[in-house]
């Protein structure tokens, strides 16, 4: 693979709908790739799957795709969130999971190029979307990551 892949990441919490959509539009995002395990929770507000799909299309003609292989399992999520696990353990478990899933073989670089990985975390530091982006760059070597 020699062509650079421009991949963005974004979280929707601590953002208004206006901030969220304007950020995507300004970056020139072509598609949002939902990496959440649960994307239908009432807590997601404007980012609930059907609502988000509609808003993206209407606001910026942005495609929406949900790829469950990029989401953590419920067990990994619960150990970290509900049982107050540490980030290092979560990161190791999640990276092991996506390696086992061989996401680099399942996800097309064409879908990712100009795409934006979405999850709920406001910042990428302790978020699985960053781990997905970094893992793919380690495998492919041509992913330019921009956290929005």
Share of residues in strands: 15-25%
What are the low-pLDDT stretches, counting only 5+ consecutive residues below 50?
A: none
Number of strands: 5
- Helical fraction equals 40-55%
Number of helices: 7
What is the mean predicted local confidence, pLDDT? 93
Our measurement of the CA-to-CA distance between the termini, rounded to an integer number of angstroms, reads 25 Å
How do the SSEs run, as a string of H and E?
EHEHEHHHHEHE
Task: Name the descriptors.
alpha/beta; globular; single chain; 5 strands; 7 helices; 17% strand; 148 residues
What does this structure look like?
By secondary structure, the chain is an alpha/beta fold. The protein is built from 7 helices and 5 strands. The chain has helices at about 15-25, 50-60, 75-80, 85-100, 105, 110, 130-140; strands at about 5-10, 30-35, 65, 115-120, 145. Strands 3-2-4-1-5 form a 5-stranded parallel sheet, sandwiched between helices. Helix 2 (about 50-60) links the parallel strand 2 (about 30-35) and strand 3 (about 65). The longest helix is centred in the middle third of the chain and has 15 residues, at about 85-100. The chain starts with a strand and ends with a strand.
